[in-house]
Design goal:
alpha+beta, 41% helix, elongated
């Protein structure tokens, strides 16, 4: 009975992971095209901390490394319900990134070997390496080291230019400058100015009449 529950648990995990792997790959098809990778060996992995190791680590099964191909990876996190049943697999990073493990023909000598047995009692081998040994494939297809990728993530995003100008967008919107700004108030002020210009000749006529009247009064007084 226990073995049956364990088998169902593993099948559930496997099905969720396989479906998500397809979705994750779709996310990176544009990047892979720009990197000129036609038929990638793609998989999803968890990046974990291990005692005695610096930084996050990633595990590759021996059969994966035996393929002697570059491996393209996106890291993920597992989502569990209250009963610790896997319900979903989500991207580890909000800014989706594609990583690459370049084939190393000397992996048996250079990587840490981990030997384990699965729930059916069958032995398997895997190798643990530092995530920092991977490279990152940027959305434009460029390949950078893991350290360079980390620095890029720390850079603030460029603020989008609000106006079409040859100069930087230093000016803020009037709403940001003055919280009491009313957009239609400025329109009324502009209309008032236009009305003043239109009535300007009438003002001159009135002033002329007043000046003429004053001159006549002045002559009579003299």
């Amino acid at each position: 009975m226990f073995q049956l529950r364990q088998l169902k648990y593993q099948l559930n995990n496997m099905n969720i992971r396989k479906e998500k792997e397809k979705e994750f790959l779709t996310e990176h098809l544009g990047t892979l095209k720009k990197a000129k990778v036609a038929d990638p060996f793609f998989t999803i992995k968890t990046a974990f901390f291990k005692k005695g190791k610096y930084g996050r680590q990633v595990q590759f099964f021996e059969w994966e490394l035996e393929k002697a191909e570059d491996i393209y990876i996106e890291f993920y996190d597992n989502v569990y319900d209250d009963s610790r049943t896997l319900t979903d697999v989500i991207p580890m990073y909000e800014k989706r990134c594609l990583f690459k493990h370049k084939h190393n023909p000397f992996y048996k000598e250079e990587y840490e070997l981990k030997e384990s047995t699965n729930s059916q009692g069958n032995p398997y081998s895997s190798f643990v390496i530092s995530v920092s040994e991977l490279t990152a494939i940027l959305p434009d297809g460029r390949e950078v080291t893991y350290n360079e990728w980390e620095k890029i993530q720390e850079e603030p995003e460029a603020k989008e230019q609000n106006t079409l100008s040859i100069f930087p967008d230093f000016e803020k919107n009037k709403e940001e400058d003055n919280p009491n700004y009313v957009p239609w108030k400025e329109d009324e002020e502009e209309e008032d100015k236009e009305e003043e210009v239109k009535n300007f000749p009438d003002w001159l006529n009135t002033l002329d009449r007043i000046a003429s009247a004053l001159e006549k009064i002045e002559k009579k007084i003299k």
